[in-house]
Amino acid sequence: NVTMAAQMTDAHRRFLQVLMSHGIMEGSETRKLHRRCCEIDKVYYAHDKLDDFISTINSHLQPLFMQIRKGMSEDDGRAHYALVNLAETEITKMASDYTENELELFRKTMDLIISSENGFASSTDILNLADQLKTKKMKKKEAEQVLKVFVEDKWLSERNGEYTLHTRCIIEMEQYILSNYPDMARKCNICHSLAIQSQVCESCGIVMHLPCVRKYFRAQTEPRCPQCNDFWSCDIP
């Protein structure tokens, strides 16, 4: 109930505006922003109250079907905060920014990434799809340009010609991916959020994010699966 919720101050509004302009922010940047907004607008600041500060904003965003969500970078395990639109599936939200065949290319790229073993799709494989699009075929040059835009807009990340889903995309599309890829998309056994770049237990099939694998096995001399206790045969990153 919004009337019961803590009041929004200018600090909350400023914080929300900056986050909206970035789309997604890394955890330490978000904490700095929290402090700066409170200082500028002379609002009580406590370094361990970021979650409370955000939940005040979220209670006021609720009627607008929006929410600030916290997620994790699959590369380094760092926290990130993103503003998410809950009213529509993210693919339809993307529709206002991209043409139909660009969206089809994105969907096909997503198919490749989610069905891959390591959570990546090569640019060669993606570009090979460009001239098979049902909506309107794309020349390779054109498709390269579109991929570049997806990276700039933080839907995809690229490393040495390999593409994966950007942290922002994972935070925003988690529900969409879990419901649209029920046989392939899985949650990490440790942090229980969607895992794209992950390792799989050969015995029982549970999935773990690479940063979660690193953290979980750090103190163990012999890595054993948290679920079935069998030897963890993947290389610990």
- CATH class assignment of the largest domain: Mainly Alpha
CATH architecture assignment name of the largest domain: Orthogonal Bundle
Shape: globular
Q: How much helix, percentage-wise, in residues?
A: 40-55%
- The Cα radius of gyration reads 20 Å
The fold-level CATH name of the largest domain is: Arc Repressor Mutant, subunit A
Largest sheet: 3 strands, antiparallel
Distance between the termini: 45 Å
SSE layout and pairing:
Blueprint: H1 10-22, E1 24-26, H2 27-40, H3 50-61, E2 66-72, E3 79-85, H4 90-94, H5 100-115, E4 121-122, H6 123-129, H7 140-152, E5 156-159, E6 162-165, H8 167-180, E7 186-187, E8 194-195, E9 198-200, E10 207-209, H9 210-217
Antiparallel strand pairs: 1-3, 2-3, 4-6, 5-6, 7-8, 9-10
Helix pairs in contact: 1-2
Could you please describe the fold and organization of this structure?
The protein is of the alpha+beta class and 237 residues long. The protein folds into three domains: 10-64, no CATH class; 91-181, Winged helix-like DNA-binding domain superfamily/Winged helix DNA-binding domain (Arc Repressor Mutant, subunit A, Orthogonal Bundle), CATH 1.10.10; 185-236, Zinc/RING finger domain, C3HC4 (zinc finger) (Herpes Virus-1, 2-Layer Sandwich). The protein is 43% helix and 16% strand. It is built from nine helices and ten strands. The strands form four sheets. It has a three-stranded antiparallel sheet. The protein has a three-stranded antiparallel sheet with strand order 4-6-5. Strands 7-8 form a two-stranded antiparallel ribbon. Helix 1 (10-22) packs antiparallel against helix 2 (27-40). The N and C termini lie far apart (45 Å). The mean pLDDT is 91.
